[in-house]
Amino acid sequence: MTTTSATSATSSIITALGAGSGIDMAKLATDLAAAQYATRIDRLAAKSERLEAQISAASEIKSMMLSLASSLGDRVRMGDLSAQPSVDDAGVAGTALSGTSRPAGTFSLEVEQLARGQMLASGSFASRSAVVGSGTITVRFGTVAAGSFAEGTKPAVDIAIPAGATLAQTAQAITASGAGLTAYVSDTVDGARLVIKGPDGTASGFVLNVAEDAADPGLAALAWQPGAASGTLLQDAQDARLKIDGLARTAPSNTLTDAIPGVVLTLSGTNAGAPTKVRFADPGSAITGAMQDLTGVLNEIAGVLNAATNPLGGDLARDSGARALRQSFSALASRVVMPGAADGEPRTLSDLGLKITRYGTFELDTDRLADTLKRDPEGVAAMFTTGVTGVYATFDSLSRSVGSVGRPGSLGGSLSRFTEELAQLGKDQAILAEDQEETRARLAARFAVSDSRIMGYQSTLSFLENQIAAWNADKG
Question: How many helices (H) and strands (E) does the chain have?
């Protein structure tokens, strides 16, 4: 209601302006208000334009650094730098890098037997909702073989079965016990049977001892020992058996870490008598290509960074975050990326051929890179992993440092500051626009009063002129 009244009043004033004096009072009020605020508006506009340019420059550099770290990480994890192993017979095993070392060469793999867990079935019950009785089931772990049980070092687990528990609820209690067992009810042609599966490995065989509540009997039907009349041993537990390069070994699981150095091997099938090959590509050519690409990207970032920090008109010439990044770039070639490397092993980016010129740009010394690869190929390969050290870790850390909002001296901190200042500037501009509009409206109102008075003066003047003209006519 107030807004409508103000708009109506303003329209009335504007309609009346200029009616008496012949001067465009509305334009005069607007021009005077604009002139009064022009300097401050121009100053805020210039500051806004400068902040937007700084935000744009900082965002571009931050984005380029993030893109560099991300693309390098992708190449190390799953691209041409990953040296992911391949298995000639993919049905025998799957492979992945463990990250503990950089594998190379070719290995023979023969899987004679897969690891598996013990599987036991109870006797038959009328249904899965049949009540089994109450008491305690004690699971003891060890080796089940040749009709006997040899208890191992894994502690026994007690599972309490309350009164009224059904076969299905007993299965749930066993699974939830933390014993590492999985239980379910199978509705067979002979009735409902409780099936219990144990962990893989020979030492994870198990027996079931039962202490039933004499007042609520029945749970003893679930007890099992080798050779017992109750229950059926569907599958015994066993270790995986395999040969790597002809040497036999066993494992309690089908997932083996560093059976082949640097590789997580997941067995999925057998190939007894027909060994397959696990192969690794030579990383030398991929590393050379990666260093060429890295040098090119660093030059792109350096070009943008140098232009932004140019003392003669650079948008980030005085920004501490941009200057800090430029200093980091100037020291990149000599930066130690493998602090744990022994004497003589490659440890810096300059060992990989990276050079920085006096113009702040980068060059790749391919001869030095080739010499380092020839002298220590494993040491060079170790620099391209996903560990806490190496080339990727160095640029990932630098990218995180650049983008850190919580560090005042970082580019991310500068970007956050620029954004906050721009937001505040927008508020200041809005307030200034409101003040200007209020000033214009106030001047317009005053001019309307003045114009009204001028109209009155003109009316009086016109009356006097008419009267004088009439007097002169009467005298004639």
Answer: 9, 18
